[in-house]
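Why should sequence recovery work at all? Because a backbone constrains its sequence more than one might expect. Tight turns favour small or flexible residues, buried strands favour hydrophobic ones, and helices have their own preferences. The token representation captures these environments compactly. In the example below, the structure is given first.
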């Protein structure tokens, strides 16, 4: 479940463009429709690529490409971008559980500088309309036998992106229903500023409902107040599996009884969009088929390394075929 956004990737030649557009390098700025349109107009002559995006959508797309049975919950508009988003999911093999809105589909303009750094101007549009009511159960009904059905039926895992955490009612309802239906709950913290603003709520939800937490070092610091190695140990006190990703240094995985350090694969970096999301795809895929934690992390690193050699968060079928062969023979 996540913010259904269409990523519009635009390579730019220098940081000067970001200065002209008043976009701090490396940031994720929320903008309104008019500002989003103005940015697109200013960059109308630049090459653009589109893909169905949003953190959870990237992760679930990756899982589907690995052969997992997947579904996705989100809101799109009844417009061209909304149709593009749904078709992209279906083509990957994801079952779309979409709510349709009269608002425009959300879009994330991602400006990629030559050093592969991404700067986002995100118009959430229809995505922000996702609410607890869309999940099909009122709070008063949460313990009724009929709640063991609906959107969560037929799945074993429920993955949430941290950008949704600001909607406390939505997240609480979602994890309650997921647990009622026996699902393993996975949460990607997604943004350090969201973690900082919702730390108390996150602490409660993670302790009560979450089984697997993914965080990068900034998010882990915001949540625990500690650097990566200490943070992964701290997070593991509350969940079954804690994962802290440290970029070029790899990642750390910790349970109550096991600790693993995962390396990275050698790559030619083009764009880091989706690296953390695809790491989660690989890790969850490995976990779902019963592989050891070390192998789960290595599959995550394989997918993350491959996606940063591509522009945007999607990879072509040839690359997926090669990765699948590598996973099968590992």
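From this structural description, the recovered sequence reads:
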């Amino acid at each position: 479940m996540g913010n259904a956004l269409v990523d519009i990737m635009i390579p730019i030649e220098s940081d000067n463009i970001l200065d002209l557009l008043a976009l701090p390098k490396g940031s994720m700025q929320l903008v309104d429709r008019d500002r989003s349109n103005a940015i697109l107009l200013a960059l109308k002559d630049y090459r653009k690529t589109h893909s169905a995006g949003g953190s959870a959508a990237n992760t679930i797309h990756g899982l589907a490409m690995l052969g997992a049975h997947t579904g996705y919950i989100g809101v799109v508009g009844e417009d061209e971008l909304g149709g593009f988003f749904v078709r992209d999911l279906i083509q990957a093999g994801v079952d779309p559980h979409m709510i349709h809105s009269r608002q425009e589909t959300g879009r994330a303009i991602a400006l990629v500088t030559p050093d592969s750094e991404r700067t986002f101007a995100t118009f959430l549009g229809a995505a922000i309309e996702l609410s607890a009511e869309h999940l099909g159960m009122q709070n008063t009904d949460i313990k009724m036998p009929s709640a063991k059905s609906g959107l969560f039926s037929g799945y074993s895992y429920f993955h949430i992106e941290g950008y949704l955490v600001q909607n406390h009612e939505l997240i609480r309802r979602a994890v309650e229903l997921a647990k009622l239906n026996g699902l393993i709950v996975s949460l990607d913290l997604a943004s350090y500023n969201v973690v900082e603003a919702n730390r108390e709520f996150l602490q409660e939800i993670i302790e009560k409902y979450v089984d697997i937490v993914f965080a990068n070092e900034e998010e882990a610091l915001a949540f625990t107040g500690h650097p990566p190695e200490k943070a992964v140990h701290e997070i593991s006190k509350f969940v079954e599996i804690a994962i802290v990703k440290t970029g070029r240094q790899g990642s750390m995985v910790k349970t109550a009884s096991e600790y693993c350090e995962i390396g990275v694969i050698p790559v030619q970096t083009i764009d880091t969009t989706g690296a953390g999301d695809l790491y989660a795809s690989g890790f969850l895929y490995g976990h779902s088929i019963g592989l050891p934690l070390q192998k789960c992390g290595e599959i995550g690193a394989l997918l993350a390394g491959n996606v940063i050699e591509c522009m945007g968060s999607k990879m072509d079928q040839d690359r997926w075929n090669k990765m699948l062969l590598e996973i099968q023979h590992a």
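A few observations help interpret the result. The longest strand covers residues 70-77.
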